[in-house]
Amino acid sequence: MEAKVLKSIIESMIFVSENPLGIDVIQGVLGNVDKMAVQRCLDELIEEYQQSDRSFSLVKVAGGFQFRTKPEYAQWIQKLKKTRATRLTKAALETLAIIAYKQPVMRAEIEAIRGVDSGWVLRALLEKNLIRIMGRKAVPGRPIVYGTSKYFLEFFGLENISSLPTLREIQELGEGGPEEATSEEAV
């Protein structure tokens, strides 16, 4: 199959897909097309969309590829769709961070770190599909074990869970932040 045609087919498949489309799925639909050829087309498409001055781009997210509008156009899209941005409380963000970095994790472990009951937060995160039940731990009482969902990756624009910043990177972001901002404002 000609590379230009292959690229157009892949682009159209991603365009109509509601969820990120993985290379294996694309290859499965295409049949006898080499995985490397699919990857080359995807790389070219990503580059083309980055080079063009469009309101959207092709990104690798949650183990697949998806068209995403650029953040600067969010307010108009929200008006069009009449949706409100998903808001997460501080408690939900804390709990989600614990789950993301410690998964698989039990409720008792989350509560030990946070120091408060987290039942309602876990229910809310489950309802928002940001976390999932991964199973039960093989200990007395067989407690539920939680982990992040594929939607978590989509929601935060992550390719995979290892795309999260490391604790060291987070600490480095905090070093000198407020003090430097204050000193610059004084200048």
Q: Mind explaining what this structure looks like?
A:
The chain is α+β, with helices and mostly antiparallel strands. It has helices at 3-16, 23-30, 35-51, 74-81, 90-102, 107-114, 119-127, 150-156, 167-174, 177-186, and strands at 56-61, 64-69, 105-106, 131-136, 144-148. The strands form 2 sheets. The protein has a 3-stranded antiparallel sheet. The chain has a two-stranded antiparallel ribbon with strand order 1-2. Helix 1 (3-16) packs across helix 3 and helix 5 (90-102) crosses helix 7. The longest helix is centred in the N-terminal third of the chain and has 17 residues, at 35-51. It is globular and about 60 Å long.
Structure summarized in a few sentences:
This protein is of the alpha+beta class. The chain is 55% helix and 13% strand.
